[in-house]
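Q: For a teaching session next week I want to show students how multiple molecules come together into a single three-dimensional assembly. I've collected the sequence lines for a complex. Could you give me the predicted structure tokens for the whole thing so I can convert them for display?
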Amino acid sequence: MTDTDALFRRLEGELPAGALLTDPDECWVYGYDNSRRQGRPVAVAQPEDRDQVAAILRHCHAAGVTVTPRGRGTGTTGATVPDHGGVILSTERLRRLEPVAADDRYVVAEPGVTNGAVQAAAGEHGFFWPPDPTSAAYCSIGGNLAYNSAGPRAVKYGTPRENTLGLEAVTMDGRVLRSGVRTTKGVVGYDLTRLLIGSEGTLAVITEATLKLTPLPEARATLKAVYADMAAAARAVSRIMAQPVVPCALEFIDGAAIEMVHSHSEADLPEGAGALLMIEVDGPAACLEASATAVANAAHGEGLLDLQRATEAADVAALWATRKALSPALRQVAPKKINEDVVVPVSRIPELIEGLQGLGRRHGITIVNFGHAGNGNIHVNLLVNPDDAEELDRAWRCLDEVFALVLGLDGTLSGEHGVGLEKRDYVDREITPATLDLMRGIKEAFDPRGLLNPGKGLPNAS
Amino acid sequence: MTDTDALFRRLEGELPAGALLTDPDECWVYGYDNSRRQGRPVAVAQPEDRDQVAAILRHCHAAGVTVTPRGRGTGTTGATVPDHGGVILSTERLRRLEPVAADDRYVVAEPGVTNGAVQAAAGEHGFFWPPDPTSAAYCSIGGNLAYNSAGPRAVKYGTPRENTLGLEAVTMDGRVLRSGVRTTKGVVGYDLTRLLIGSEGTLAVITEATLKLTPLPEARATLKAVYADMAAAARAVSRIMAQPVVPCALEFIDGAAIEMVHSHSEADLPEGAGALLMIEVDGPAACLEASATAVANAAHGEGLLDLQRATEAADVAALWATRKALSPALRQVAPKKINEDVVVPVSRIPELIEGLQGLGRRHGITIVNFGHAGNGNIHVNLLVNPDDAEELDRAWRCLDEVFALVLGLDGTLSGEHGVGLEKRDYVDREITPATLDLMRGIKEAFDPRGLLNPGKGLPNAS
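A: Of course. Below is the structure for the complete assembly, covering every listed component.
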């Protein structure tokens, strides 16, 4: 019996029947994510509870086999791609969702529960969990936490780091840790909760999360503002974020993106518009009008072509459908699009947009932008023909300058997609060597043999 | 020349004239904090910038001398008390406050800037920084971050962890790290920002913080609700927190505390009341009435004796003065009070209060409670006569059971005061051995020789 067979035998002994896949065909679909990278795991384990997770990790650790934790594979950076082979630990069977603790505003979920299932359960009690990636219906809580995934609502309600009270997790050598609290305050011990959130499954496998819930707003209003050009829209974003009413969404679509989804959308999108803002405010019904007026006033300014409030539910839905259709639509148009999610301080958005236009022109690359303007989080898409090696090459050179531009504007390389494999080699442009050194020290404290999702998130030590 | 003299010479060489104190009398006042513990530092260094901080740490590291970072010494747990002797690194000269970045809603401050100075600067632009400990006028930002200090507003606006975008800090061996961003989103690298916040100066010395600012609310309303007994008030807190309007303060004073400050207060406090709630709502002027009505409705219920809205500014000020006078007043009454800041989920407050009353009776100890009820963060004060050794002994036994009660209710030992020396020996009741082990691993990654504020925050390894 080979070492691998022996490990399989041990893993099978820990798992329910059928919860260890070793057939390469069955394993194949666990080898890729939305980055379109592909790895080849030797096996896929589907544990059903915390103890099974710990047992799998311990066996792999003893055997020196790498483990890649995986939620639903909706990430875009390759963080769940097993490029070292090894075992995939799929959280798909970890789906316990405890009853909502309505009085204390939290719910306890295992990592395989979908974001959508949490929203549905919370909604019955008048709550929601703020993180809302585009893939919310399908993606898992574990993945949301691993990436610190956010979405449009983050501008008002924050990311998973601001909306998680505590975690249970297991390290590669099978140690079970519990961090955080079931209360909204707690300062005993180091904050391992936020350290694990956003660590892309490199420190420990989350087995349970205590999610902080927020009351559903009583009412919501959606505005659509059309601008002559991107610069005008970007200035409007700055004005909106400089006044006290924080919108619950402030999304941004540039002219190239509008054109691209025109045929896919039922929303009334103006031909030839330079940019579109979707602005949403929510809160108690008693102050909705005042809030909507405040943001509408801020949206007014040079370059505004049209400002409308979507009053019918169907109009609001069409507008959101348009926004959410952008990412898949772009993928259809340009299967090899390079999709970044850079962030700059809101006041620097005009400079970013202007700089991106210059870079696109100079490198002959079509750049399409949309995203969460209220956070300065812009999804920058470089469209490339996958069969044109020369264009691809130009695109990578262009991207290099995009990152330099962003960092020069006090920005960051990723707002919510994370690093994974895709951005790993750019991280040392943003994070200093001494800081990376400390991060590697933390990795070592959690995973001394470097077997848990190795090579993700941090650049290899030089 | 002794080793110590040689070290002093080197430190003096890095600092401006007069910025190294070695006279024991001058050092004395840097040896205690609000825990009333006293240590004896061999020297006090007052660096003026980041490079001087790094140089001091490097020299002490090389000499194997411990360093205790210190803000204004307003902490209550002994975290800044140099119980190992060594050098105090005082942040008092690190007082650079950059101009408020109003468009991007942040301000950059060095750790020695007071909370009050930040509020004043932010206020000029229509913003505030939410953390507001009672000592806000005097305490420093560095201390607020080291402890994750909060205050009444945390119930709506969060603690420093939710209100800090990034940090610069220096490790004991002089490595300068930069974490976080100048934007409201960012997921590149591990979250060292929240890891350092609340780590009580044991991992690195913060030299700069990017503080996230929040727009000042347009209007505020303050309600005072009097209840027949604590249990009735606790039930009201649960009702208030279960409805959608989150108050910006929900403070709680029990009957014993009311009696104690009666003579110190100008507020109209009813004789013989069992408990008092101070409820504040804020937001746009247009929805203030609706918000005040919503919380007032929730405040109504069995045991409510009186509910008034403080309409005059003087009434509001008197009410807050009463709340803020509690801590000092209690200290006058009982100089050896044991002052805890436990937290339980809001729905468990009635059980906590009932349990505390039982423990007080059983051990013959007067227990006075007040605090941030909206977070379930109750300041539990055990009043003891310092000259009565037997009573003191009973009080410690009582405290032991208080902690067991809190943990049994899914609570935590500290909401904002932290651990320091005071609560160190109780930490392993809340945090599991495997989790503590990981925390010690992180400490070692930052400070392998264990020279930076040793022995604070975590229990000694057994």
